[in-house]
Every structure is written in structure tokens, then in C-alpha cells.
Amino acid sequence: MSELNGAAFITGAASGIGKAAAYALVQHGVRQVAIADVNFTAAQQVASDIESQFAGTQALALALDVTNPDAIHEAITQTVARFHRIDYAVNSAGIPGSMAYSSDHDLEAWHKTIDVDLHGVWMCSREEIRVMLTQEKLDDSPRSNRGVIVNLASMYGIVSPSRDLPIVSYTAAKHAVVGFTKIDALTYAPLGIRINALCPGTVDTPVVAALPSEIIKREEAKFPLGRFAVPEEMADAIVFLLSPMSSYMYGSALVVDGGYSAQ
């Protein structure tokens, strides 16, 4: 795979897919990476670990609540002040939301999920686009861009969960992420910004591991492989979407779900 240059900004980067993406990007050549997460202590640890394991790498830890537009603007501002640009952005901060059918769903819980999983992703993407519009390409290659963005959606942004998994607000948010990714991709492609969505299957993250064991076993059995993905499998897909190897992909919703949606 092509080596990556430039600076990266990753939300939800203290654990799960975001953390794996940070490591994967550094392993593929990125030497400046912003680790943004609501858990600032964990973000600091990830940044410290990356700098100690990868000589010459600069890792900036940032406290970021993606439901706060001012905090997002400040995090982006700090990243640009430190690295002077953002070439790669991964918007992976998210929550699973409540398990409730619509007839039983609490409105406050609905808003919380939508605020993080939809509004948070969109507001981060908006700020990233604004920065990328101000910068030039890293090189003159026709496969180069002023910036590349990956928005984390879900396989449940493409298909519905089964009836025994009532994650209504989460599913609504992820469908919407796919939707705004498509229109933004069309809007900013002529301006040199490439935007796609990643639609993972269920991933073995701390959030998923905290679910009741009977739900974990039931959900794993729904996948042809009989297991959830590991974060590194999603990180590899993110690196692909950010790299020149996917240079003709705009507005795609790349499904990496172990065959779940093919059933």
C-alpha cells in the first residue's frame, strides 16, 4: 500500500477503531497525528505511546466532545497550529445509543445518540472541510488531494438490524452519515477534497465488550465468520480509503462487515 504523508486528525482516537486507525496511519507513513477524544487522559496515553514507539512522530492529544461545536473548532485550530494542515481526517467518535423500539424510545436518549453519531460526525467533517479548502495538495499527482475524509457509519447505515436488536436511533444516525457523506463528496470533489464513509460490521471494542454476554453470543452468531471484527480490520480499510489506492472513490459507503449484509 502507498505510503502516506502529511498530518491526520482522528476523533474517538483513544480506543477502538479510532485508536487502531491512529496506529495504522503512523505505520503507513503519517508522522503528525492528532488524537482527539472525550477521554483526554486516554488520548494522552495513546499519543505518548505512539511517540515512544514511532521515532520522529508527533502525536497531539486533544480533549474533544464532538457534540460541542466550539470544542470541535478549537481542536481543529490547535491541530492546524501544530501541524499547519490536515491531510487526513477520520471521524470515528460515536456511541451505541439506547436499545429501544420506537414506541418505547425516550426522546432525550434519542437526541443524545443523534447528537454524537450524526451531528458530531457532521460538525467535525464541516470543520475539516473548511481547513482543507485553504490548503494546496501535497504534490502534483492527479491522484493527490487537498484533503481526504473518512466518516464512520455502520453496516446499519446500509441495512437494518434484525428485530431483536432495536437500536433505532443509532441506525437512523448512521443512515444519515452515509447520506451527508454522499452529497458532501459530490460538492467538494471538484475542489480537491475526497470524502467517503466506512460501514463496519460489529467490532470488538470496549463498548461492545461491555454488552451482556448473551447479546454478544447472539450477535456473533449472525455473522458468517461467527465472530466480530477486530479494530485493526477497520483500520486497514480506513488506511485504504485515505490512501491514493482509493483515489477514484468519492461518496462511497465501503461495507466491511464480514459478509453480514450479503446474507
From TrEMBL:
Q: Which UniProt keywords apply?
A: NADP, Oxidoreductase
Instruction: Say if the entry is tagged with keyword Oxidoreductase.
Output: yes
| TM stretches of this protein | none
The signal peptide stretch is none
Q: Which residues form a coiled coil?
A: none
Highest rank taxon of the organism = Eukaryota
GO MF, one example? oxidoreductase activity
Instruction: Please name the InterPro entries in this protein's record.
Output: NAD(P)-bd_dom_sf, SDR_fam
Q: Which family does it belong to?
A: Belongs to the short-chain dehydrogenases/reductases (SDR) family.
Protein name as catalogued: Oxidoreductase UcpA
Classification of source organism: Eukaryota, Fungi, Dikarya, Ascomycota, Pezizomycotina
